[in-house]
Amino acid sequence: MSEHTPDQPSASPATSPAPASSAANTAQQRQRASQLAQALRLELQKALIGQAQVIDDVLTALIAGGHVLIEGVPGLGKTLLVRALAKCFGGEFSRIQFTPDLMPSDVTGHAVYDLQSEQFKLRKGPVFTNLLLADEINRAPAKTQAALLEVMQERQVTLEGRALVVPLPFMVLATQNPIEQEGTYPLPEAELDRFMLKLRMDYPQQDEEMLMVRQVTRSSKADMLEVAPLRTLLQGKDVQALQKIASDLPVDEQVLDYAVRLARATRSWPGFAIGAGPRASIALVRGSRARALLRGGDFVIPDDIKGCALAILRHRVRLSPELDIEGLSVDQVLQQLLDQVPAPRL
Amino acid sequence: MRLTEASVAIRPRSNWEAMDLGVLLARRHAGLLMASWALVTLPIFALLCLVFWDSPGIAMFVFWWLKPAYERLPLYILSNCLFGNTPTLKQALKAYPRLLKPQLLASLTWRRLSTTRSFDMPVMQLEGLSGTARSQRLAVLGHKNTGTATWLTVVGVHLEMALSLGLATLFYLMLPQQLELDWSWQSLIAPGQNDWMWLEHLSNGLYALLLIVWEPVYVACGFCLYLNRRTALEAWDIELVFRQLQQRLKGIAYALLLGAGLLFSQLPGTAMANPELKASSTSAELTSGPHLTPDPLGPHAERLQKQALSSQAAQQSITQLLDKPPFKNPETVTRWRLRDEADANKEEFTPDPDFLESLFSGLKTLGKLWESMETLARVFSVLLWAGLLALIAWVLWRYRDWLSTFTGRFGLPQRPHKLPPSQMFGLEVTPESLPDDICREVSQLWEHEPRAALSLLYRALLSRLLHDYKLALKSAHTESEVLQLVASLQQPSLEQFSSSLTLHWQNLAYGHRLPPATAKQSLCNSWRQLFEPGVEA
After folding, report:
1. Is the same domain home to A299 and A198?
2. How far apart are CA B506 and CA A307, in angstroms?
3. Percent of chain A's residues with pLDDT above 90
4. Do A46 and A75 lie in a common domain?
5. Is B478 on the interface with A (CB under 8 A)?
6. Could you tell me where the Low complexity compositional bias lies (chain A) (predicted)?
7. Distance of CA B431 to the CA centre of its chain
8. At B190, is the pLDDT very low, low, confident or very high (cuts 50, 70, 90)?
9. Are residues A215 and A340 in the same domain?
């Protein structure tokens, strides 16, 4: 199910001999993990005001080991969120500003001839990091976007015929702007499918915006919130431990069935031209485990699935042309679907 | 038929006014009409009742079906009354068998269900037309009146129903209570026995009675519609005015003619001549009359002949001036236009009698061909309409899923679910499917099958929410969404119970954790307090 969960049990002390004490240990560990996740959420909420839902979803993706595509009009703090996450997370962070002339080798790295040693040396690109921010990802042409395909799915980069593993945990956070279509390249389906979640950032509420304006105008920098005062809460291995704990959360058969039914429903639903693939059901279960951990629960309930279904499904389906012309959005039709697929009972 | 003796004012009326006139006419001769109707129909009704005593429905139906036969009598009476010679009851009844003969079969079979019956009847009965002549005549007459006549029949149907219901209700009100009770018991105990047959016959009789009042009015309305149409078609009102004029002036017309002749013979003598002119004029001028020669002193005589500008020259220049702008602005416009078909025909038309004859015969055959074509066309139109309807039905059926998904988008009113669903989440949630004492059942199950016990309790909660609190639960609702809906009810105790039960249920169902033993008692107690306040644990 969670094929990216690291195998190394460095952070997981669930190897105690006695099963009873192991169960207690696991429970304790879960409790700590969920406390940690909630602390991280609080910290992020300090930096990004008024986007609690988006913060939850980003944390879901982090714990589930998926990638996130964030869409929103300019000025809503997409980049700020990623920078804040990088700040709270002690691992490496690098950022690529996607431009129309960006080449695949600018992303993955390339071989350079070294005059002194008279041989080619590999120069690793910015993808060799823990947290990768792909800013305005749709501004680069398809070949550059395709440079991310391998690393996103397999966590490795093939350079000069050698497969190089990127450091774990690895997470791509891409942003894109939905209104400017001039000079952009829409993401190919294969690329979209590799993103676990696609988040929509909306304008903040009035009181939240007032709070934000108050804080930003008080800050010393011109017009942005500072992320400097944020505490570094967790390291790379802590994230891996969180991922491990989340992947161990029990999922009842009924809940699993619900996730699969949701994903399958999109394929036969009359409003969709193209439904979601099997990656959607996988992502639904992984996302729900992460959400259960964030919630502080010990097991997955159907609400966890339903809560992240919209973000997981919205970029994997394509609206049928009639509805597109009618002006219906994918979210509306998906909401209709969620309202009609029966939730599990018994 | 003499229009001057008509008892109603003959003038063109609107259709509704004509029907009003019909009501008035029926009211004026109400006694005769109703008596004759009753004398004809009531014996027939009695006979039918006797014959079909066991099945009052059939008697009623046959009586109703024979209505066109009875209607001939009121029409006869009305048509005679209109021109003054009101028949006596005896005369009318004597005339009735003779009236029945023509076209009785047609009236009682294929014309029985015609909606314009009362309007068509005078054509058959008074004009004595049948077959093609009748249908042509009806086509002429019914040009604008068919709609009104149909409405008359529709109103009549409703009036008959309303009156018969009213009479039945009145009768029911008059029943003594004991009889009514007896009746109810009888119908309850032995619904098959026909002891109460006379009641049905009685209600049939009520219908026969109300027809006495309504049918003459119906016939009179149709008759007046017919009269009105003829008044308009044959200009009866104008004819009537001329007749009155003739009658009034008959006496003095000769005197007037004589006087006029005398007056005209005197005219030449009264011409006055100018005495001066008389003196200077010749005798020839006198015989030819003074008016024939131009008056030398008149406005048209030539004057100012010695002047530089004679009157004639002035006249000419004035005429020339008047022909020029701004008095006249002649302009020539040239444009293309289609050659007029009628003109072209006229030009080519040669008054050759043979050609005319052949043309007319050709037109006649064309007309006949057209008639046969019309039948074919009707068949095709029926086929095409049927095809269109079938196509629409097929499209609706074919895309029913699509339509049902997007009905909200089309703004179609979605019928709210009146009844709560009996099955939800794959569970039986009707109150009947649950055991009477839920708590006892739960307590029994708790030790051995805790999952079944909790499931029963949760199911009972959902059932109560659905039926007692009328919550609009859907299958797609998860447990927390149900909790949110419960929170919207603003009942703290119910909310608390629901959340604790949901917690235990989720722990068991999805987390596979047994609920603590203490939960049983607290849950049962809360359930009793909430839903069974009378029973103590």
Report:
1. no
2. 16
3. 0
4. yes
5. yes
6. 7-30
7. 50
8. low
9. no
Q: What is the enclosing helix (H) or strand (E) of B405?
A: helix B400-410
- Rg, Å, chain A Cα set: 21
- Residue A270 within any structural domain of the chain: yes
Q: What is the CATH number for A253?
A: 1.10.8.80
The minimal CB distance from B511 to the residues A299, A323, A341 is found for A299
Distance (Å) from the alpha carbon of B523 to chain A's nearest alpha carbon: 19
Residues A226, A284 share a domain: no
Q: Which residue has the higher pLDDT, A17 or B259?
A: B259
| Residues B49/B54/B59/B62 CA torsion (nearest 10 deg) | -130
* Per-residue pLDDT tens over the stretch B48-107: 989 988 888 888 899 999 999 999 999 999 988 888 888 888 988 888 888 888 888 888
Structural domain containing residue A307: 249-346
Torsion sign (Cα): A278, A281, A282, A284: positive
Residue at which a domain ends, from A177, A212, A247: A247
**Phi–psi pair at B33, nearest 5 degrees:** -60, -50
* CATH code of the domain containing A65: 3.40.50.300
User: Are B510 and A342 inside 8 Å of each other by CB?
Assistant: no
**Which residues, at least 6 apart from A99, have a Cβ–Cβ distance to it below 8 Å?**
A139, A140
More confident call, B339 vs A71: A71
Same structural domain for residues A202 and A314?
Answer: no
User: Which pair of structure tokens corresponds to residue A304?
Assistant: 């966890």
Are B141 and B123 in contact by the 8 Å Cβ rule? The answer is yes
Please tell me the distance from the alpha carbon of residue A306 to that of residue A303, in angstroms, as a whole number. Answer: 5
Among B426, B476, B511, the residue with its CB nearest the CB of A341 is B476
**What is the number of structural domains in chain A?**
2
Burial class (CB in 10 A: 0-12, 13-18, 19+), B192: exposed
* A63 and A152 both lie in a single domain: yes
pLDDT in tens, B478-534: 888 888 888 887 888 888 888 888 888 888 888 777 777 777 778 888 888 777 765
Residue B407's pLDDT is 64
The pTM of the full predicted model, rounded to 2 decimals, is 0.51
> What does each C-alpha distance from B173 to A149, B162, B169, B176, B359 come to in angstroms?
88, 16, 6, 8, 75
Q: Is A164 helix (H, G, I), strand (E, B) or coil?
A: strand
Asked if residue A293 and residue A215 are part of one domain, the reply reads no
Mean per-residue pLDDT, B368-381: 88
Whether A290 and A186 share a structural domain: no
> Which amino acid would we find at residue A12?
S
Tally Cβ neighbours within 10 Å of residue B318.
10
Smallest Cβ distance to A270: which of B402, B479, B480? Answer: B402
**Which of A344, A289, A295 minimizes the C-alpha distance to A312?**
A289
Taking CB atoms and an 8 Å cutoff, what residues of chain B touch A306?
Answer: 478, 481
Domain final residue pick, A191, A218, A247: A247
Average of per-residue pLDDT across A115-132: 84
What values do phi and psi take at A159, rounded to 5? Answer: -120, 125
Q: Does residue A4 sit within a domain? A: no
A15 is a domain residue: no
A125 belongs to a structural domain: yes
